Amino acid sequence: MTAMADTVALVRLMTWLSPAFPVGAFSYSGGLEQAVADGDVGDAQTLRGWLLCLLAHGTLWNDAVLLAAAHRAFDDAERLAEIAALAGALSGSAERHLETMLQGGAFLAAAASWPHPVLDALGEAAAYPVAVGAVSAAHGIGAEAALAAFLHAVASNLVSVAIRCGVIGQKNAVSVLAGLEEEIIALAAAAAGSTLDDDLGSATIRADIASLRHETLPTRLFRS
Question: Which residue of 14, 17, 42, 97 has the lowest C-beta tally within 10 Å?
């Protein structure tokens, strides 16, 4: 029974964080499009560096900490609401807020195909990592597995953004993702044991500014 339960959890996690799951991730770049326009990201090496900074010190690290907190609080509606409010307030720009809230809302709407009381606790909208963390916990998916899958999915989407911006091709895209594998696994483990009080915070000022400046980028493919 344990093996079967683990397999069910794995399949659900793969479904929820696959490119086919209707959260609209392809519409957002998290400011990466602006970084490409500014020349900060122009090849596989600079893309990898940009993603590593986001994972270790930026928005993706904060998202991981928030996901872990929501995972722990999935059966505590009051605490979950506090975490969801914090996640929304931490958005560094209007576009970043739009990105996380709309993806979270879309995730919850699609996750309704797997009914659970946690969906009522979250309501119609919550920041994307909060939604993923709480729903994963509710369905018996471990925090570390959920974190690794979430971070990989977001990184994969940003690599796809770079492809569509003409920065890299498919071959280099695979190489970048392969090069992030160890870091994603390590960060998932670290975030699983994180706390909001001690571990929340970012230091990627240039990425935050890129997200803000993207709001006035004259020609763009993405909503953030």
Answer: 14
> What percent of the chain shows pLDDT beyond 90?
93
The answer to whether the beta carbons of residues 83 and 195 sit under 8 Å apart is: no
Distance CA 127, CA 89 (A): 10
Distance CA 42, CA 36 (A): 6
The predicted structure's pLDDT at residue 3: 65
End-to-end CA distance of the chain: 44
Q: Concatenate the DSSP letters of all residues of 59-122 into one string.
A: HHHHHHHHHHHHHHTTT-HHHHHHHHHHHHHT-SSHHHHHHHHHHHHHHHHHHTTS--THHHHH
Name all domains of the chain by residue range, CATH numbers in brackets.
42-215 (1.10.4190.10)
* pLDDT interval class at 6 (50, 70, 90): confident
Which amino acid would we find at residue 215? E
Which residues, at least 6 apart from 130, have a Cβ–Cβ distance to it below 8 Å? 66, 67, 70, 80, 83, 84, 87, 104, 122
pLDDT exceeds 80 at position 154: yes
The total of other beta-carbon atoms located within 10 Å of residue 174's CB is 12
pLDDT tens-place string over residues 107-121: 999 999 999 999 999
Confidence (pLDDT) at 64? 98
The two most distant CA atoms of the chain are separated, in Å, by 55
